[in-house]
Amino acid sequence: MSIFVTFYAIVMVIIMIAFIGLFVLIVRALLKYIKSKDVRQEKSAMRKSLGEALKEHRTRSKMTQEFVAEMIGVSRQAVSKWESGTSDPSTSNLFAIAKLYGISVEELLKEVE
Fold first, then answer.
1. How many domains does the chain have?
2. CATH no. for residue 45?
3. Which parts pass through the membrane (predicted)?
4. Within this chain, do residues 26 and 42 fall inside the same structural domain, yes or no?
5. Is there a single domain that holds both residue 4 and residue 16?
6. Residues 108 and 54 in one domain
7. Residue 46: per-residue pLDDT
8. Which of 48, 72, 76, 93 lies at a CB distance of 3.0 to 4.6 Å from 89, suitable for a disulfide?
């Protein structure tokens, strides 16, 4: 009977150590996430800046979101998401957009930086 009690105690200690280790990992991850707030905000601002540049060029070119979407083969919602900063266009779409607006990708990205 004492072997089972000892075995049970050892298993419980191992489980407790595992939970403590898991707790430590979760706390470290949360602290890292909290400390990265500035980086996340900066990335968000960059996306908004790219979106603002895309919208500015589209309106300057007197094009609608629907027209841009048709010309590059995406949905109007995709163009809207790019302009609002919710998502970023793929590299190939970025090249197509720049060509449509009559500028180079480099010029477009310089406006963001």
1. 2
2. 1.10.260.40
3. 6-31
4. no
5. yes
6. yes
7. 64
8. 93
CA distance 107 to 20: 52
Phi/psi at 100 (5° precision): -60, -40
**Cβ contact 100:68 at 8 Å:** yes
pTM of the model: 0.58
- Domain range enclosing 7: 1-35
Q: Same domain for 42 and 19?
A: no
pLDDT digits (tens, 9 = 90+) for 23-67: 999 999 999 988 888 877 777 666 557 999 999 999 999 999 999
* pLDDT number for residue 110: 86
Cα separation, 63 vs 59, whole angstroms: 6
